[in-house]
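Module 6 notes. Inverse folding takes a fixed backbone as the condition and produces residue identities as the prediction. Think of it as a translation problem where the source language is geometry and the target language is the twenty amino acids. Below is one complete input and output pair. Work through it position by position during the lab.
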């Protein structure tokens, strides 16, 4: 189960990298000063940094079998997931509204949905794996 969680986590990361690249290539950082984007830079970068940190703890767990790494990875993943949910709600509210010019408006709906579904699957699989004896 832990290996499956790792594979799904890597798929989630790949989709997240795609979305981050889209945001950056459409001027997300340049839009910070004008507040066109609904994503503050700290939010858009904290989410993947925390997810990567959690992934590192998960890999450490898989290599060593130490439960402390599993639970630390899950805790860090939980914070990253909350930030991801904040970004999702901001994206949904801004879509077509007063923030329609923001870089995040170029996100393909399918990519956002797949990233979210893979992220939720990762969360559940990591939790189940961490709880197993």
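Target side of the pair, the amino acids:
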């Amino acid at each position: 189960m832990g290996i499956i969680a790792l594979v799904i986590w890597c798929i989630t990361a790949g989709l997240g990298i795609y979305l981050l690249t889209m945001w950056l290539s459409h001027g997300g950082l340049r839009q910070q000063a004008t507040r066109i984007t609904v994503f503050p830079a700290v939010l858009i970068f904290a989410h993947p940094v925390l997810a990567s940190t959690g992934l590192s703890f998960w890999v450490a767990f898989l290599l060593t079998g130490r439960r402390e790494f599993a639970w630390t990875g899950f805790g860090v993943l939980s914070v990253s997931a909350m930030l991801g949910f904040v970004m999702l709600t901001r994206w949904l509210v801004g879509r077509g509204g007063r923030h329609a010019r923001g870089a995040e408006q170029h996100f393909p709906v399918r990519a956002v949905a797949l990233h979210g579904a893979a992220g939720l699957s990762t969360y559940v699989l990591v939790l189940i794996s961490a709880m197993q004896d």
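Reference fact for the lab report: The radius of gyration is 16 Å.
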